[in-house]
Amino acid sequence: MLKDRTRLPAAFAFTCATLVSPALAHHPGGGGNTGEAGPIFTIPASTLDEGQFAVGVMFEYVRLRTLSDQTLTSAAIAGNEGVHDLKTIESTSAILAYGVTHDLTVGMRVPWVGRTGIREGEATDPLNPIVVDRGSAFGFSDVTFLGQYRFFNDKKAQTEVAVLLGVKAPTGVTNRVDNEGQLFDAEFQPGTGAWNGLFGLAVTKRFGSWSLDGNVLYILSSTGTQDTNLGDRFLFNAALSYRLTGGTAEKNALTHMHLGADRPEPMYHGGPKEGSVHSRAEPAASPTPALELVVELNGEWHDKQVTADVVDQNSGGTVIYLAPGVRLSYDKWSTYASFGIPVVNQQNGIQPEPSWRLITGVSLAF
């Protein structure tokens, strides 16, 4: 029995958006997809078919507006120890998803994370404050497991609704040190050392070549490395996708018999003769490339982080990206790219703000 690959793209995206936007806590997120029109970062309600796998590699790069030397030294003189600078956030993630049933998909994401250009002011001598270049931090981050159960699927109205439940395990490294051998603060470590719970809802509505998707996801944080709670997060996304060209050939594969010379003789002629061909399935048409256009709004609210019961006033806030994207698919393969520009950038206290974000990757469904 042929499996419907038109469900694969949107279903696979849910495994990729579970570490969310890095702008506020310096922890990256992302997206991914494999097939028909669907979002890149937004989590859709579609699920994989039963017994199907999807794998992928995703890369995310965020460029931040660095703080000036004067801002860093002024903060150091004022004793504002929570002020740090950051240049880029980079992550490369391996992603796996599996369709347990037609309505239940489970997935995991294993990320490698790097943060560069970490700087801070130092005022050992208040009359001569300096800016210290602490370097970069790279390493494996926390593994995320997410389950998606589609409890509503109206095929006639092409509307789906799914619940999202998951956990982020403290598997990432938390021992990275700076250029002077000093331990980086918890917010710059690749791992958090904390268990996080994920709870959300996703909705998908299709109409012709268009797909409208939306989701909300709450990430409940706990205290981890260095007695630090990096803060709860609330993710809210919406996406509009359009299949510009192409399609999935397997969806249109024909299984009826040919009407030509190899058709079996009718029963009123005594049935097929011995050795004659009974039937032959028509081979599926060759797959053709598909091009899809996507535009998304990706938002995140982040609570302030707390270390040893002390609230960091220079953490948390709200950011919303406007992110156009494109996906090119062929047969079981898909590659995608999304470029995000912040349209809302409300940071608490003094923090480097995101300037732009790039998400790209490749996926395979089988």
Note the main attributes of this structure.
3-stranded antiparallel sheet; Lipocalin; disordered N terminus; 2 helices; mainly beta; 366 residues; elongated
Structure in words:
This protein is mainly beta and about 375 residues long. The protein has one domain: Lipocalin. Helices cover about 5% and strands about 50% of the residues. The chain is built from two helices and 16 strands. The protein has helices at about 10-15, 70-75, and strands spanning about 55-65, 90-100, 105-120, 130-140, 145-155, 160-170, 195-205, 210-220, 230, 235-245, 290-300, 305, 310, 315-330, 335-345, 355-365. The strands form two sheets. Strands 1-2-3-5-6-7-8-10-11-14-15-16 form a twelve-stranded antiparallel barrel. A hairpin with a 7-residue loop joins strand 3 (about 105-120) and strand 4 (about 130-140). The longest helix has 9 residues, at about 70-75. It is elongated, with a radius of gyration of 25 Å. It starts with 7 loop residues before the first helix and ends with a strand. Residues about 1-10, about 15-35 and about 250-280 have low confidence and may be disordered.
Order of helices and strands: HEHEEEEEEEEEEEEEEE
Structural class: mainly beta
Arrangement of strands in the largest sheet: 1-2-3-5-6-7-8-10-11-14-15-16
Q: How much helical structure, as a percent, in the residues? A: under 10%
What is the CATH first-level class name?
Answer: Mainly Beta
Q: Given the C-alpha coordinates, what overall shape results?
A: elongated
Count of separate structural domains: 1
Weakly predicted, low-confidence segments = 1-12, 14-35, 248-279
Q: If you average the pLDDT, what whole number results? A: 84
Total DSSP E strands: 16
Rg calculated over all Cα atoms: 25 Å
Judging by the overall fold, what is the CATH architecture?
Answer: Beta Barrel
Give the count of helical stretches. Answer: 2
Q: Could you describe the largest sheet, including whether it forms a barrel?
A: 12 strands, antiparallel, barrel
Distance between the termini: 14 Å
CATH topology: Lipocalin
